[in-house]
Amino acid sequence: MDSTWINAPAKINIGLDVLRRREDGYHEVKMIMQSIRLFDRLTLTKSSEPGIRLTTNLHFLPVNEDNLVYRSAKLLMDEFQIEGGLDIHLDKRIPVAAGMAGGSTDAASCMLALNRLYRLGLSKRQLMKRGLTLGADIPYCVLKGTALSEGIGEKLSTIPRMPDCYILIAKPGIHVSTRFVYSNLVLDDHTPHPDIDAMIDAMRQRDLHGLCALLGNVLETVTIPAHPEIASIKQYMMESGALGSLMSGSGPTVFGIFDDLDRAKAAREQCRQLPYRCFAFVTDLYR
Ligand code: ATP
């Protein structure tokens, strides 16, 4: 086998809580992660010319060590002293810097594909351990599906599957810096924390309505005051029949959960008409 490809799914946070800021500056989180059917595609081809060459359909993305795909490939190629070179093409579909772990899922999928292409024989656990050295969300992106993420994101546990539903993704054309959001997060007695354990119970009972009533993301306390469009999109989705709506990660992506595909598609058309250029897409869960 000289070539292989892999789909790298985006994630959303069904619930996101930050428990405390650690002395080393990292934040201790408690998040419910869910993969969705929105994918980047990576194609890896062995080459006789040494080195890693990355190409992508998005001209503004780095194609050197600043791209997590490049770094993850280099990590495994160096460790296993792989001879020859590698051409990687990244077909980017997941919005960039959107709170959907685009870079992390690309890195995780690159390692999964490289493991297969060169028959390295690494288990998922072994890939997750290596992925963690490049980014806190990469171990989850190797695992995929529904998971609880704790610690700085590296402690993963499987939880009951999220009930079937349709997901409307809307990403307004605004830029949100993850660093800005975390550094402006105030954790005190007034901070509204989502009840992640109650959310997991609702998932166990396959209670989609109950789950949607509990959706919460503590980072909205920072991102929404800075970008009120996010609150309007959430409201818009609820008025369009969403059972629940939430910002994903540090934003600006908002998702809505629907139990009816036609209603989700109608809401997508409405989002596309919004004045602040909205990428809008209806999909479902990736198991
Ligand atoms: P998270 O949800 O983990 O915070 P995100 O979806 O907000 O991630 P990314 O799309 O991963 O953010 O991109 C953040 C930055 O990382 C971008 O500014 C980009 O230049 C850089 N980057 C490096 N590698 C990639 C990649 N493969 N895809 C997208 N961005 C990448």
Descriptive report:
- There is one protein chain.
- By secondary structure, the protein is of the alpha+beta class.
- The chain is 33% helix and 31% strand.
- The protein contains ten helices and eleven strands.
- Strands 1, 2, 3, 4, 5, 6 and 8 form a seven-stranded mixed beta sheet that branches. Strands 9-10-7-11 form a four-stranded antiparallel beta sheet.
- A hairpin with a 3-residue loop joins β5 and β6.
- α1 packs parallel to α2, α2 crosses α3 and α6 runs antiparallel to α7.
- The radius of gyration is 19 Å and the shape is globular.
- The protein starts with a strand and ends with a strand.
- Adenosine-5'-triphosphate (ATP) binds next to α1 and α2.
- The site of adenosine-5'-triphosphate has 19 residues, from α1 and α2.
